[in-house]
């Protein structure tokens, strides 16, 4: 096959996907066309999603981008070792490396990118990918603040990008979350009254001391749009690490434990309430402490931050509790009785990466779009703002503004560091 530019490849893949509906033979030809994919970020989560992607026969990882040199080299080696194992020669040298993601998008052969950077650096590379007409899989929580989420979601929609937010509970974990949502939709617990979401607390200002920066770390790129501060390995660990770095505890870079796991569990709560395109209307924090903050929705459902890990849904006729390792109901018959033929089912997906790749080819929406990811992240940000301001807040989810509250509205956005203004896709 001759070398294709990005636009040529996109036309080919879109045409092949359309032709796939005409019959099995054409569908097999479309499935054999590999998508050229690049990875941005090679931490623990990045390595996990990379492994899933390498197992997909129609994905070719052609480049990796990382600001820490050891992880960059390790990512390249992992990719090339994987493809080498499938060759008779046992050799493969086709993975390019980049430190600066902006250089990555000077290529014209990319179809899609996987963004596995810290939370505060999701939107900037995503907008660069959109400008390059690349489809995107991006880790959660999707954003560092509410305003940049709207910038991203609108750019995705405007440019018709296939965007998957990495809220994989919608696709995986033995269908526990999917089953819970279907049972709630079917009215098995009666009218939904309350939801309890058990996740960590809000972030704090970063107070880490400055350490000597390793020579193989591009710290300016790691900081990106956040306020400049000195290097600390708690934020950007040295080398290959098998833990999730604690940058997520600090408000300059993330939303604390509340947003970290909240981006998973509040996502399931919003899904069950059919609020994927909306959100709560009031936020009521406790006077002190990190817990028992209450959201209220127009439906009258009250959702609380706190409780057992995962989601507890309480209805007029029963309760469903779901977490990654458990699905329970009270009474137990709720789970034992099969759903009926007329009961609604959730979007069919049992592999989050696979769903995204299929949608890249078909041009359909994946299970967790940028809009959904933004709305879930917004719930987390609203909770954090409630804890920060310690007073009742009234939120307009259509306008994405607080009602008659200039102080709160100012906190929905953050001006990026000079030179890191948002490039509107």
Account of the 3D structure:
The chain is of the alpha/beta class and 425 residues long. It has two domains: 6-169, NAD(P)-binding Rossmann-like Domain (Rossmann fold), CATH 3.40.50; 170-202 and 257-410, Dihydrodipicolinate Reductase, domain 2. 35% of the residues lie in helices and 16% in strands. The chain is built from 15 helices and 14 strands. It has helices spanning 6-20, 24-32, 44-54, 69-84, 101-104, 123-131, 146-159, 176-185, 219-223, 256-260, 262-272, 333-336, 352-362, 370-389, 406-410, and strands at 35-40, 59-65, 96-98, 112-115, 135-138, 163-165, 192-198, 282-284, 294-296, 302-315, 319-323, 326-330, 393-396, 401-402. Strands 7, 8, 9, 10, 11, 12, 13 and 14 form an eight-stranded antiparallel beta sheet that branches. Helix 1 (6-20) packs antiparallel against helix 2 (24-32) and helix 7 (146-159) runs antiparallel to helix 14. The longest helix has 20 residues, at 370-389. It is globular. The chain starts with 5 loop residues before the first helix and ends in a 15-residue tail after the last helix. Residues 1-5 and 16-31 have low confidence and may be disordered.
Compose a concise summary of this entry.
The chain is built from 15 helices and 14 strands. It has helices at 6-20, 24-32, 44-54, 69-84, 101-104, 123-131, 146-159, 176-185, 219-223, 256-260, 262-272, 333-336, 352-362, 370-389, 406-410, and strands spanning 35-40, 59-65, 96-98, 112-115, 135-138, 163-165, 192-198, 282-284, 294-296, 302-315, 319-323, 326-330, 393-396, 401-402. Mean pLDDT is 93; it is low at 1-5 and 16-31.
């Amino acid at each position: 096959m001759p070398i294709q530019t990005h636009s040529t490849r996109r036309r080919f893949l879109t045409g092949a996907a359309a032709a796939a509906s005409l019959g099995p033979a054409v569908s097999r030809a479309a499935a054999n066309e590999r998508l050229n994919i690049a990875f941005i970020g090679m931490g623990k989560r990045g390595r996990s999603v990379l492994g899933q992607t390498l197992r997909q026969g129609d994905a070719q990882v052609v480049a990796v981008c990382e600001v820490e040199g050891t992880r960059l080299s390790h990512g390249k080696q992992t990719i090339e070792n994987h493809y080498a194992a499938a060759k008779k020669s046992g050799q493969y040298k086709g993975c390019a490396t980049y430190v600066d993601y902006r250089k990555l998008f000077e290529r014209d052969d990319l179809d899609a990118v996987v963004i596995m950077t810290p939370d505060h650096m999701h939107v900037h590379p995503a907008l660069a990918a959109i400008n390059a007409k690349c489809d995107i899989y991006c880790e959660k929580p999707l954003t560092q603040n509410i305003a940049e989420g709207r910038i991203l979601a609108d750019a995705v929609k405007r440019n018709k990008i296939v965007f998957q937010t990495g809220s994989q509970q919608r696709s995986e974990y033995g269908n526990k979350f999917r089953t819970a949502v279907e049972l709630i939709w079917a009215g098995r617990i009666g009218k939904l009254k309350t939801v309890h979401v058990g996740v960590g607390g809000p972030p704090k200002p970063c107070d880490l001391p400055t350490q000597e920066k390793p020579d193989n770390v591009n710290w300016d790129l790691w900081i990106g749009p956040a306020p400049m501060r000195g290097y600390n390995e708690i934020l950007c660990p040295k080398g290959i690490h098998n833990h999730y770095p604690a940058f997520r505890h600090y408000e300059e870079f993330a939303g604390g434990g509340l947003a970290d796991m909240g981006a998973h569990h509040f996502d399931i709560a919003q899904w069950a309430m059919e609020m994927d395109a909306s959100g709560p209307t009031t936020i009521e924090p406790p006077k002190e402490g990190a817990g028992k903050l209450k959201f209220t929705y127009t439906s009258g459902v009250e959702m609380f931050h706190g409780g057992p890990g995962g989601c507890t849904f309480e209805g007029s006729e029963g309760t469903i509790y779901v977490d990654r390792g458990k699905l329970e109901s009270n009474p137990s018959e709720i789970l034992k009785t099969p759903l009926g033929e007329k009961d609604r089912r959730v979007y069919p997906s049992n592999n989050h990466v696979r769903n995204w790749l299929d949608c890249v080819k078909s041009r359909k929406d994946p299970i967790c779009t940028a809009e959904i990811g933004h709305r879930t992240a917004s719930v987390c940000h609203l909770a954090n703002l409630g804890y920060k301001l310690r007073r009742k807040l009234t939120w307009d989810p259509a306008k994405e503004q607080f009602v008659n509250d200039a102080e709160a509205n100012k906190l929905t956005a953050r001006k990026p560091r000079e030179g890191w203004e948002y490039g509107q896709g």
